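Anyone able to model this chain together with NAP?
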Amino acid sequence: MSVNERIALVTGASRGIGKAIALRLGQMPGVTVFGSSTTEAGAAGVTEYLRQANLKGQGIVLNIGDPASIEQALEELTRVANMPAILVNNAGITADNLFIRMNIDEWSKVIETNLTGAYRLIHGCIRSMIKQRFGRIVNISSVVGVTGNPGQVNYSASKAGLIGLTKSLAREVGSRGITVNVVAPGFIDTDMTRALTPDQHSHLLEQIPTGRMGQPEEIASAVAFLVSSDAAYITGETLHVNGGMYMS
Ligand code: NAP
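re: yes, here you go
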């Protein structure tokens, strides 16, 4: 799985799925990994876990909801390393509410972070990928971007949007050596799902043929495959990693 000397940027790497992805990509030969958090403390935590794992890379402060923060982070990356050849748009938030009660702020902040944030970051990185004639972009969507979920109109719209973005962009940049794909996790054991009530939890488990939640490392393996040379001919695809919860 050699990808030569490459810089990987993983957003939302302070914990959960993003942390597992950063650790997994950092193990790939030739990859130096930058993992983001919105806080200095979170970024320091990323630097520390990469150091403890003996991997090349560091934490970086980045708020994908803030264009100035994105610009600053990419400038810092260029200064200390290079522009990313591998970009994993993992950072995401929820603000659940039934549609009838969902206000415009709950709608906007989720779309702005999960979808517009990915747009902004890709926009900042794509020229350099085109110049290098190499790029691997993986957008982390969700099973609910395909199935829908009551109480998550904003979140599922943002995650479905990522799938549309991915397919169109894959068609635009495929000839430049850049692949753009989605990994759509199901029900994964992280802080995000620990916020569910016991009732929601057991209801979700009933819908999973494998009978268990996924682990962040199982999402990281799918991402590692998609950025590897083994997946060079896969683009515009959505890889579902959900224990059979949804089958396309
Ligand atoms: P998590 O444990 O809640 O972690 C979220 C990460 O996103 C944190 O590192 C956080 O950084 C970062 N983040 C939040 N807002 C941000 C912003 N404005 N700018 C930059 N970073 C921001 O989430 P997770 O469960 O690992 O989920 C990771 C991704 O997988 C998300 O996109 C989520 O929608 C998707 N997903 C998760 C599941 C699941 O079951 N867990 C299922 C399907 C899809 P700091 O807090 O350090 O600042």
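The chain has nine helices and seven strands.
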